[in-house]
Design a protein that fits this description.
Organism: Kineococcus gynurae
Number of helices: 24
Shape: elongated
Pfam families: DUF1800 (PF08811)
Number of strands: 4
Strand order of the largest sheet: 1-2
InterPro entries: DUF1800 (IPR014917)
Oligomer: single chain
Largest sheet: 2 strands, antiparallel
Protein name: DUF1800 domain-containing protein
Helix content: 40-55%
Distance between the termini: 18 Å
Structural class: mainly alpha
Radius of gyration: 24 Å
């Protein structure tokens, strides 16, 4: 039962925390999963307190542009820190996993000054309200948000010169998929449909009928006749709803969800099953997730997915039980800087396709070394000074009741990886420490007193920690 719980928690959260497996076992995995699929009913006071450190995220688009000069990065930084903190400390863990999933699927990078005033609102009004809702609603909201209009040039696309960036990506990445059956002609026609949006002086988006191509058009089996330019937004919504409900979109999204939660090589039968659930529920996300987590393929996939660098770092914070401080960025700034150094800072992927979600994309020697160094800084040196470290991670507590080094190392691995230590893991640690399994344990052992943090870091650098 514990193995089943650990598998579920690893895949549906950013990593287990002390006590989380016991919590899931107490309510039952099915009920816990239903609670996670209804995040608004999960109290999240500690994370809410943490988020008060970032008041700039509560401002409207107009307020940001009125109060900050172009290119001011402070709002962008607060969004980055808040995002890291939510992953580390929110109790609404499946929701935060899905926010990350959709932020990558409908990616708008948080690295370019042109988006610094908009990206926080995109997160608040596009991604988060719809992360467990209907994909069709999220797609429409994304298409009209100033951040996406700037990112893919929709705000400069007009009937005299349709910009094809959004028309291409909405078909290739957001809906049908690269093998979804659309043509170059479809892409150009889609760009024509999406013309008409521009920006007010305060940075918000507005539809200008004079800029809209109101001619008859066909896109991937959908069509619209000549129409009143003022009805352009409705025609655009009709096209996006058609695309959201398209079988190719269902297959593309199901493939990405299986890749995220089950396997780097999505199983065709499971993809087809989830695509049917998606279409039968009018693009709703939660029913698809229920079917996915109930599938035999999900149950059989334990140990087959690898955490990406950001996931490994956040999972280490969660495994150690570190909590946010009450000043500055609460320690989230240091975690973010470490993640950025790993090439996996949240919301920082520059291209429209989002961060890759397969192990081979992150398996280089350089990537591994950077992850080890970041984990070592966090665990051994406890680098973020304003994180609050739990008292039960001190030496006396770690060794209490252990008579030998073998017992102690088995406990350390089990505490940090949330499952029994394997014999090869214990043997490797014993060789590192120059001890045998039966060597008596003493709190006065100078090696142990000086290097407990090093041992914890080694466990969290090992392959066992990187199992998603």
């Amino acid at each position: 039962m514990v193995d089943t719980l650990l598998h579920l928690v690893r895949r549906t959260t950013w990593g287990p925390t002390p006590g989380l497996l016991e919590e899931v076992a107490a309510v039952g995995p099915a009920r816990w999963l239903e609670q996670q699929l209804d995040p608004s009913r999960i109290p999240d006071e500690a994370c809410d307190r943490f988020l008060t450190l970032f008041p700039k995220l509560n401002r409207t688009l107009q307020q940001v542009r009125a109060q900050e000069r172009w290119g001011d990065a402070r709002t962008m930084q607060q969004l980055s820190y808040a995002t890291i903190g939510r992953y580390c400390w929110s109790r609404r863990q499946l929701f935060e996993v899905m926010c990350d999933f959709w932020s990558n699927h409908l990616n708008v990078t948080n690295t370019v000054p042109a988006f610094f005033a908009d990206r926080h609102d995109y997160d608040a009004t596009v991604v988060r309200p719809h992360a467990l809702g209907r994909f069709a609603d999220m797609l429409l909201a994304s298409s009209r948000h100033p951040a996406m209009l700037r990112y893919l040039d929709g705000g400069v696309s007009r009937k005299e010169a349709p910009n094809q960036n959004y028309g291409r990506e909405v078909l290739e990445l957001h809906t049908l998929g690269i093998d979804g059956g659309y043509t170059e002609t479809d892409m150009k026609a889609c760009a024509r449909v999406m013309t008409g949006w521009c920006f007010r002086g305060d940075g918000t988006a507005i539809f200008d009928p004079r800029r809209h191509d109101a001619g008859a058009v066909r896109v991937a089996g959908w069509s619209a006749p000549d129409h009143d330019p003022a009805s352009g937004p409705q025609v655009q919504a009709d096209l996006l709803l058609f695309l959201a409900r398209h079988p190719s979109t269902a297959r593309s999204l199901a493939t990405k969800l299986v890749r995220r939660f089950v396997s780097d090589d999505p199983q065709p039968d499971l993809v087809a099953q989830l695509a049917r659930v998606y279409l039968d529920n009018d693009t709703a996300v939660a029913p698809v997730l229920r079917a996915l987590f109930a599938s035999p393929a999900f149950a059989a996939s334990a140990g087959t997915k690898t955490r990406r660098p950001l996931e490994g770092l956040v999972a280490a914070v969660r495994a150690l039980g570190a909590q946010p401080g009450r000043t500055g960025a609460g320690g989230a700034d240091a975690i973010f800087i470490a993640a950025r150094g790993l090439g996996h800072g949240p919301l920082l992927w520059p291209a429209p396709n989002g961060f890759p979600d397969v192990a081979t994309a992150w398996s280089s020697a350089g990537s591994t070394m950077r992850r080890w160094n970041a984990t070592w800084e966090l665990t051994s040196r406890r680098k973020p000074d304003n994180l609050v470290w739990p008292e039960n991670s001190n030496l006396a507590t770690r060794i209490a009741g252990c008579r030998t080094w073998g017992q102690f190392l088995a406990r350390l691995v089990a505490t940090l990886l949330f499952r029994p230590a394997t014999q090869p893991e214990i043997d490797a640690l014993l060789r590192l420490c120059g001890r045998s399994s039966e060597t008596p344990l003493s709190e006065n052992d100078p090696w142990l007193a000086q290097r407990l943090g090093d041992l914890s870091a080694i466990v969290l650098c090992a392959p066992g920690h990187m199992e998603r």
